[in-house]
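Budget justification, computational time. The allocation requested in the original proposal was used primarily to generate structure tokens for proteins on the priority list. As evidence of use, we reproduce two of the resulting records. The first is shown immediately below.
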Amino acid sequence: MIIYPKVLKVVLVAAIALSVLVALTLSASAEPSADSFGVEDASGYNSANVIVPVPVNITEVQDGPVPSLIFDIIYDNSVINVTDVQNGTLTSDWDTPAYCNHEWGTKVAIVYDSVDEHAIQNVSTGSVVLLNFSVIGEAGDTSEMNLSNIQLAEGAPDYQVGTAPAKNGTFTVQLGDVTPGKTTGQITTITGIAMVGVSVTLTVNGSSVVLETTTTNETGYFNLTTVEAAEYYIKFSKLRYWDDSTLVTIQPGGTKTVNVVLLRKGDLNDNRAFCRCR
């Protein structure tokens, strides 16, 4: 069969165009992925007042953006147990994560807030959720934290579901012979009068789980104790006064002093200002 130059040229152009189209199609339909998805090793003390936050991280997202994800984390619930799940740095604008505890561990799902710019973009690296673990086991106990069933969803128009290699970690229960850290202080009115009966609550920063609560005594003082070195959120509230709150970093064996002035609602200057001395 004789192929004339013009015909050959047309055939070659068509073949090249077809190759480009196939490549574009394959590229457009690629499933989202990442270099890794998982946790680092972690540790904490056995204490009813201790919640240990463990971030779940994703590294170098590819073929996204990713607007939702699902994963399982398998662990020994006689050693640790998930008590709350919070948004991570890459999902701070997303809906609150949904989670369900099982005998084998916890299933987590999180979806964005329908704002395209808030989806996890390509080459992104950071935490997607924060797992708050209570520590149940005894000192020296360990539990694997293994990630599985990782599903990274792609948005419109393809809606592909991909995955990423799991990065697993180990949780170790530390020796509990550590002197607890303390937070203390006095609550007063703007005129310096000590306030009795002010409610003081302690949570890990980024978590809604209350670790400890107390009220101020007749001299306006309060005391809170903890063990784990972490950043904590303290809230002060009393009927007919404006709530106040602060972040403190507490170290085992250390003492943090937080003095707060609460303003009465309807205060004449109406500026709700407050004064703190740390």
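The second record produced under the same allocation is shown here.
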Amino acid sequence: MKQAIFRLDAGKNNGLGHLMRCRALADALHSLGVECTFACKIIDSDICLSPHRLHSIENEEEFLVLSKAYQWIIVDHYEYSSEELYVLYKHPDSHLIVLDDIGNRGHLYADLIINPLAKSRAFTSYQLSPEAQLLLGPEYCLLGDSFQKLKLPDFKQREHLVITFGGSDVSALSLPVAEALADFKPLSQLEVVVITGGAYVNVSVIEQYCVQHNYQHLHNVQNMAEVFSHAKVAISAAGSTIFELACCGVPSVFAVVADNQWLAAREHSALGWCRSIDCRKEKPVNKLLESAQSLVADENLEHLSQTARSIVDANGAQRVAAAIINL
């Protein structure tokens, strides 16, 4: 049996987006006959990983020993240094695959590097091993099979405003944005859907607020593709959700709440289908809502939706899985 092991942590500080994109790749590998294991110290999620295995580890020394038994080692972890990657890279009977969207670790030792951003200056300067292959661009973003199977309704039928700030909402923006929405009448007259992730801590508070204001509240959604398919516009954290919303053709305003999100938000904003606002040091709630309101008023909104869909399809995991098999 061919085997792959994923090293990631999906806790409040790491983002559940890492878990979701690794799960998408594991599903694609499994369809090609590869048995996948997730090795984690932290995993703050009740998402079912079946048919994949979950192996709890205490430290990196334990993972180093464990990984020697696998044909492919897949690392999606910002804290892995160049030196730690080199140790894994030197495994004689393994291939090392690294998911990276920062480009700040110096020499990146790997057989295969996956980055869903295009060939921008930040990543064409990678210091690479001689044999390394690069898979760069949105055609390699990792989306789950629910996005592949989705049939999108006509854009003119969409009437939802979706508000979502990730698995834990680390910047605590969900409630302030929902509270300020009443001051933006054309925007608030859409059907408002507020989504909170599995690690969100104030579920009862935001649930009560949404009930009082006739907003729909969804918690720990298992099929984001279905929810996004009905969205006319979205206000979202700028994590891996960027690619999900693009795939569903949802013009969006992205709140950059972490350093690793800035490059993706900037790149996609330049493509015209979305806008981004830096929220790392403050909570510019009104700016987020003003940008969303201007999007809704844009007479070219449907064209922006079409632009987004032309950038991202749902087949990236299959492309990456095939490249891994061919190493």
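A brief technical remark on that second record: The mean pLDDT is 90.
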